[in-house]
Design brief:
- There is one protein chain.
- The chain is mainly β and 100 residues long.
- The protein has one domain.
- It has a 5-stranded mixed β-sheet.
- A hairpin with a 2-residue loop joins β1 and β2.
């Protein structure tokens, strides 16, 4: 998984997951790169995936840092996701799996 620290992000939408409200965002800048845009298709697919994801305790926001991809450690396509608490602090980084 990416070890990049999310420096800034952009809000996509709010979704419900297991009775919790989760802010869905995408990273616009990490300590290693900048992203100027993200397609609406990717935003929608990530938001759908977050609705079905296992949300870590204390997390109120899911920040997409890497778009859908497989990796050596996890060959199933996934989104690398940084989970944050209500104050924007990093909770954990986990894979979130597409719903389609």
């Amino acid at each position: 998984m990416s070890a990049n620290k999310v420096v800034s992000s952009s809000f996509i939408k709010k979704v419900a997951n297991g009775g919790r409200s989760i802010d869905v965002k995408f990273a616009t800048k990490t300590d290693a790169w900048k992203r100027t845009q993200l397609s609406q298709e990717v935003k929608d697919a990530f938001a759908d995936a977050v609705q079905k994801a296992d949300v870590p305790t204390g997390a109120t926001a899911a920040v997409l840092s890497e778009t859908e991809h497989p990796s050596k450690k996890d060959s199933y396509p996934h989104y690398t996701t940084h989970w944050q608490d209500a104050n924007g602090n990093h909770v954990t980084t986990k894979h979130v799996y597409p719903t389609k």
